[in-house]
Amino acid sequence: MLEVKDINVYYGNIHALKDVSFNVNDGEIVALIGANGAGKSTTLKTVSGLLRSRTGDIVFNGKSIAHTEPYKLVSEGLAHVPEGRRIFLQMTVLENLEMGAYTQKDGIKEGIDDIFRRFPRLKHRKNQIAGTLSGGEQQMLAMGRALMSRPRIILMDEPSMGLSPIYVSEIFDIIKSINKDGTTVLLVEQNAKKALSIADRAYVLETGMIALSGDAKDLMNNDTVKKAYLGE
Q1: Cα(30)–Cα(35) distance, rounded to whole angstroms?
Q2: Are 150 and 162 in contact (CB under 8 A)?
Q3: Helix/strand/coil for 115
Q4: Each residue's pLDDT tens digit, 120-141
Q5: What is the pLDDT of residues 34-58, one digit of tens each?
Q6: Of 89, 77, 10, 1, which Cα lies nearest the Cα of 45?
Q7: In 74-147, where do the E strands start and end?
Q8: Residue 159 in 3-state DSSP?
Q9: Neighbour tally for 70: CB within 10 Å
Q10: Helix (H, G, I), strand (E, B), or coil: what is residue 18?
Q11: Max alpha carbon distance in the chain (Å)?
Q12: How far apart are CA 39 and CA 35, in angstroms?
């Protein structure tokens, strides 16, 4: 579904991504793990068009999207849940969800009903100002807003960051449920153990390069990964 080929991304003179290549198959959960500053968020931003690579290509559903504007990618079926959630803080929960459906011409009410079924907490707070929600609820809203565009693939950047352990477990259960219902997931996550526990495959980024890749369960048992990322 998604193929990233030899991308090189710079911030000024800083070479942030170096010949990064990977792929995501239809129906998978693929995790990108690595230390802070390894290039994980930069990778997602490049895939979703917020940053540009100087080289290579990004192919989504058989079509190059390397030069496609981010808002057009939403219509193509690609949604991005950014780090820090970036919900519309002054709007209500319901208004945030309606904003997520801006590419949809019909079925918006059904979409909102589906989000409320998936996230019951949001239903109870649908008229609440989003900025007054807890961190976990804001993360659920960010995910729900992205799902309103009916994406084929959803890019999630650090969905568990700053959340209590109870919320972390709930968020990962929701990611599994989203995937089970047919949405492919590309997941960037600092919590490597949790990410590998739900992923099919994973890539390890180190200083802007892919250092390791493989089946998520195999990487979970890899001594290097255990020592560097799993605290073992």
Answers
A1: 17
A2: no
A3: helix
A4: 889 988 999 988 988 888 988 9
A5: 988 899 999 999 999 999 999 999 9
A6: 10
A7: 78-81
A8: coil
A9: 14
A10: strand
A11: 50
A12: 9
Helix (H, G, I), strand (E, B) or coil at 51: coil
Q: What 3-state class would DSSP assign to 10?
A: strand
Name the residue among 153, 182, 186 with its Cα closest to residue 73.
Answer: 153
Average pLDDT of every residue of the chain: 91
Contact 126, 94 (CB under 8 A): yes
- Looking from the CA of 41 toward its CB, the CA atoms found within 13 Å total 14
Q: What is the pTM of this model?
A: 0.90
Position of tokens 């390397």? 66
Spatial separation of the C-alpha atoms in residues 9 and 5, rounded to whole Å: 12
Q: Give me Rg for the CA atoms of the chain.
A: 17
Please check the confidence at residue 232 and state whether its pLDDT lies above 70: no
* Assigned token pair, 150: 């009916």
According to DSSP, residue 172 is labeled H
Contact criterion met (CB below 8 Å) for 55 and 46: no
